[in-house]
Amino acid sequence: MGELTVDVTRADAVLIGGGVASATLAALLTDLEPSWRIEVLEKLDDVALESSQGWNNAGTGHSALCELNYTPQDIDGSVSPAKAISINEQFQVSRQFWAHLVETGKITDPSAFINPVPHMSFVHGMENVDYLRRRHDALVKNPLFDSMEFTTSHEQLREWAPLVTEARPETETIAATHSPDGTDVDFGRLTHELLGVAKSAGTTVSTGWEVTSLRRMGSDWGVMARSTSGEVRVVRAPFVFVGAGGNALPILQDSGIPEIRGFGGFPISGEWLRCTDPEIIERHEAKVYGKAAVGAPPMSVPHLDTRYVDGKRALMFGPYAGWSPKFLKAGSNLDLFESIKPGNIAQMMAVAPPNLDLMKYLAGELVASPAKRFDALREYMPSARADDWELITAGQRVQVIAPDPKKVGVLQFGTQLITAADGSIAGMLGASPGASTATTIMLGMLEKVFPDRFGTWESRIREIIPSFGTHLSEDPAAASASLARTAHLLGLEDS
């Protein structure tokens, strides 16, 4: 029996996972450090097949123009715009980065991944109408939201989204907002574009290589990976980024860094209804978001949604939440159980009691009949017929269970960056809005893990992202100029 030979190579940085986060980091690093040897390791046969794939996420290009969960209402009725403004700021950073890549010829066809699609919020009932009016009033004062319109008119809504009004009683109390600055983003296509930019600058993208172990090797990390054909190799590097979606948690746990201790994950799956009638698809051009059900996770906010996936226009509704113990669509049913460690078991067990509404919601979704699910679509499209829609599986999300001294474990629905104290390894946990805000997250991570180098990168970063270090939301002229410039370069202007 022959000995197993292990090929050992060196790199300046290893990025684990071939999704939009790793792709964004690879494209940034090849610009900031063109002499570095960077390797991306992806276990599947192609990149962007998990959370970044077009049908595995909402594709909103999260800018908080329509997502109501980013504008909570206080007990006194006031609506706070702070989180929405912060997320929109971060999305503008992403737009500027993508626009720079187009301007410099590194991406030639932005319509392959981004298209103009108005963003709308839609509610019914007097209480919800009052909330939406307050939300509009709070946001429209900001230069990043000043093009948002509000209406309670069925006639105006018919103009914006005819499928929403068709067969709807004229006496129904409704309200909607409409933001012409909205976009649809195919993050799967974007991931391919960004990795294409990185590869043209020398980055190696290795698909079909699953990371099986992560260990310290002196001042380096040793990243052991096994190919689909059974080969084993180790890549040594002083810096590792873990952008493996749901699988980031077990990989970071395997690294043994103390910063991951106490963190856990709770997986949530989902499904979409996708329209099969081309005529219906052509009649709707908007992302229409509503309010989530009580206890529903933010990624389950219902929306009737124009999409462009792999260059083809589509229409979907959903998502319908589900549950699976897998951390990835291509994962194992043992993923959740294998992630439970002595350092996080108390946090995992303590999460359930304060999240009973979520558990009840998920249980209801799992046993919901097809007819009940279709009734949810009819709330947004009263004329919908079941024969015109098909059910498809959405992506798998792992929500962060974060340690908390008072609550022991807290279920989070955002994105969490984990970095080792010495800056040698970092990873991204969680889900929405990570894809849309990946550029900001990666820049923040680079500043944290490379404090000695970041100062020398700042002037270049400002060339790539003109607003870096400032707040567009506080400068109407700068906000207007940035929106106009990126819209022009990305092909988002009105035809």
Automatic annotation (TrEMBL):
UniProt GO MF annotations: L-malate dehydrogenase (quinone) activity
Family: Belongs to the MQO family.
Keyword tags: FAD, Flavoprotein, Oxidoreductase, Tricarboxylic acid cycle
Cofactor(s) needed by this chain: FAD
UniProt key word Cell cycle: no
Pfam (any one): Mqo
InterPro entries: FAD/NAD-bd_sf, MQO
Assigned EC number: 1.1.5.4
Pathway note: Carbohydrate metabolism; tricarboxylic acid cycle; oxaloacetate from (S)-malate (quinone route): step 1/1
Protein name (Swiss-Prot/TrEMBL): Probable malate:quinone oxidoreductase
Reaction(s) catalysed by this chain's protein: (S)-malate + a quinone = a quinol + oxaloacetate
Keyword Oxidoreductase: yes
Organism encoding this protein: Brachybacterium kimchii
Superkingdom field: Bacteria
